Amino acid sequence: MGSDSEIIQAEDVFLTGGRVVLRSLTPGDLTAWYAWFNDGEVTGAMNKGIFPNTLEAQCDYLRHLMESKTDLQLAIMSKEEGRLVGVIGIHKIDWLHRRGDISLIIGDRQAWGKGYGTEAIELMVKHGFERMNLHKITAGMWSSNEGSRRSFEKAGFVLEGTLKENYFRGDGYQDEYRYGFLRRDWESRGREEPA
Ligand SMILES: CC(C)(COP(=O)(O)OP(=O)(O)OC[C@H]1O[C@@H](n2cnc3c(N)ncnc32)[C@H](O)[C@@H]1OP(=O)(O)O)[C@@H](O)C(=O)NCCC(=O)NCCS
Predict the structure, then answer these.
(1) Does ligand 1 lie within 6 Å of residue 53's CB atom?
(2) How far apart are CA 22 and CA 48, in angstroms?
(3) What domains can be seen in the chain, in order of their start residue?
(4) Where are the alpha helices (DSSP H) in 28-166?
(5) Mean pLDDT for the chain?
(6) What's the pLDDT at 11?
(7) Using CA positions, which residue lies closest to atom 23 of ligand 1?
């Protein structure tokens, strides 16, 4: 573990995978969390980083999340490194149509490419279908975001559509890919996997 490692309190663990655990966000996460949105490398292929983020704004957002009945956002903790590496959420939860949209950021660049993003998606999807009784989970990403696209595809999401030139970046407009995952496809996928 690095010198900045935290202890993962067993009592805080909400969802457990092989590489990551997901737990509630706390005020102690704010300093790392808010700074990710000021890191141009992290926000390079997502719709953030246009205005500076502040600790106060992140604090307000955490308060909003605590009250919200249409968002579930959790901290992603690396088990190996014992520290916060990102956040994942299901947002815009529609309790009538039983849908929600996933957002994901592995803000710690040292933690990219270790399978954390994919596993966090898998844990959130399982929770969304098994415990929140969602029917469908969606996600969107910029066409240039290869890592995000691959992570969602590995977790089982399928491309449903393309919103043409939906986002501007310095080098031009980018399409947005819209992905979806139906509960019945998630269930049959589980049955296909070897025991
Ligand atoms: C995109 C992101 C979520 C991916 O998470 P991650 O933990 O690094 O991804 P994983 O390690 O689970 O990798 C999943 C797959 O994507 C591939 N991948 C990851 N980053 C990649 C990149 N930058 N380019 C191409 N492929 C990439 C991996 O190789 C892996 O595929 P493989 O198993 O076939 O080799 C993470 O890099 C991130 O948060 N980036 C910054 C913020 C962001 O873009 N968030 C998403 C907004 S939609």
Answers:
(1) no
(2) 23
(3) 10-192 (3.40.630.30)
(4) 30-36, 55-67, 116-130, 146-155
(5) 95
(6) 86
(7) 147
